[in-house]
């Protein structure tokens, strides 16, 4: 016990008493497009502007992002968050990845998204995003959801969504730690809830503007992955972790532009939805791996091959809220993205289709 408490004392050491130096944890997306990698370095003093941070490099041949004979990948710091694990002046740094010659590597989805968001017609529309990230917590050695009997199934869905109680809610300590850690880090996390399938949860990030929605969601995922690591629980973003009569996991993306939020916005929304319908196949192809297992037309989804929208309809591809219809302006929800989608791809593609694309 004494050793454990000494360890925890050391982990919680406040460095600011003894040194100006800080620790910066550089975070990036690995070769699979879903694996989050990170490593830390010491900086001489606190930094609040990403452009003042040094670039860094890593071995891309070990992350599936470069060949062994030319393995160096360069990290460009893009966004800074406070580090909820080390606290003090220490920081988390979201980076994207380039070749030594300065070309974005193929898995760098941020680069193209930032280009779209910096287009004057997109920037003028102040695109807002609210992303609902669903995920499943799994028992470590059996890869079976938290709270489920080993090799067996719990009672059918119904009591678990926003449920409370030891027989309905599994992993709340992880969820609440994550909620507070995100607020501490400076992420615009706007809520959490228990989901329809037991062991499944959701957090929401937003409203966030443009490229920052992607930065914030990736760092929120990173923080969650770190907390589950501490708790000895496995985090899954699989869109359909359990086959059968169980809900899948999505990343519903709520979206509005300045024109949609202004008077007469409902007409702008309807035009935008029409464009999204015309590019349905392209969007589905970019909305996450394995999504066909989730978008079956059951369990609050629309069939993957059919595009439909409706007011307050959770079986539609795009849902418009009753308030938006009533007020004649507001936002809509794209229900198609899977839980393992890349937020850089999804947010920028929605902006591109609704603002830049000419049908």
Global outline = globular
Number of strands: 14
Structural class by helix and strand composition: alpha+beta
Q: Describe the main β-sheet briefly.
A: 9 strands, mixed
> Cα distance, first to last residue?
66 Å
Q: β content, as a range? A: 15-25%
Number of helices: 10
pLDDT under 50 segments (min length 5)?
Answer: none
Question: Can you tell me about this structure?
Answer:
The protein has 359 residues and is an alpha+beta fold. 29% of the residues lie in helices and 25% in strands. The chain is built from ten helices and 14 strands. The chain has helices at residues 2-11, 109-117, 120-124, 172-185, 211-231, 258-261, 265-278, 280-286, 322-327, 343-356; strands at 22-29, 36-43, 56-59, 72-82, 91-98, 128-139, 144-145, 189-194, 200-209, 233-236, 251-256, 309-311, 318-320, 332-334. Strands 6, 7, 8, 9, 10, 11, 12, 13 and 14 form a nine-stranded mixed β-sheet that branches. It has a five-stranded mixed β-sheet with strand order 2-1-5-4-3, with helices on one face. A hairpin with a 4-residue loop joins strand 6 and strand 7. Helix 2 (109-117) runs parallel beside helix 10 and helix 5 (211-231) packs antiparallel against helix 10. The chain is globular and about 60 Å long. The mean pLDDT is 96. It is found in: Cytoplasm. One of its GO terms (biological process) is glutamine biosynthetic process. Belongs to the glutamine synthetase family.
């Amino acid at each position: 016990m004494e050793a454990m408490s000494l360890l925890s004392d050391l982990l919680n050491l406040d460095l600011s008493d003894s040194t100006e130096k800080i620790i910066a944890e550089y975070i990036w997306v690995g070769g699979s497009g879903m694996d989050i990698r990170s490593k830390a370095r010491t900086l001489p003093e606190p930094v609040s502007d990403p452009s003042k941070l040094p670039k860094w490099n890593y071995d891309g041949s070990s992350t599936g992002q470069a060949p062994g004979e030319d393995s160096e990948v360069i990290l460009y710091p893009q966004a800074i968050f406070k580090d909820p694990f080390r606290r003090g002046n220490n920081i988390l740094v979201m980076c994207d990845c380039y070749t030594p010659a300065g070309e974005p590597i193929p898995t760098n989805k941020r680069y193209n998204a930032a280009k779209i968001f910096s287009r004057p017609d997109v920037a003028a529309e102040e695109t807002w995003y609210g992303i609902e990230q669903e995920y499943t917590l799994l028992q470590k050695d059996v890869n079976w959801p938290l709270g489920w009997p080993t090799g067996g199934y719990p009672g059918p869905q119904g009591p678990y969504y926003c449920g409370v109680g030891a027989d309905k809610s599994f992993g709340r300590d992880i969820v609440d730690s994550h909620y507070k850690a995100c607020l501490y880090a400076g992420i615009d996390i706007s809520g959490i809830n228990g989901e329809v399938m037991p062991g499944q949860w959701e957090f929401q990030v937003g409203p966030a503007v443009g490229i920052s929605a992607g930065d914030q969601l990736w760092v929120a995922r990173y923080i969650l992955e770190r907390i589950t690591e501490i708790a000895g629980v496995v985090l899954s973003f699989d869109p359909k972790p359990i086959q059968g009569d169980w809900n899948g996991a999505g990343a519903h993306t709520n979206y509005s532009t300045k024109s949609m939020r202004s008077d007469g916005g409902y007409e702008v929304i309807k035009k935008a939805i029409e464009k999204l319908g015309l590019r349905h196949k392209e969007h589905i192809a970019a909305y996450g791996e394995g999504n066909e297992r989730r978008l079956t037309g059951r369990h609050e989804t629309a069939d993957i091959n059919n595009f439909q929208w409706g007011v307050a309809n959770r079986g539609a591809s795009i849902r418009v809220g009753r308030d938006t219809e009533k007020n004649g302006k507001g936002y809509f929800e794209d229900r198609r993205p899977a839980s393992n989608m890349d937020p850089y791809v999804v947010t920028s593609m929605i902006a591109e289709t609704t603002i830049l694309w000419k049908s």
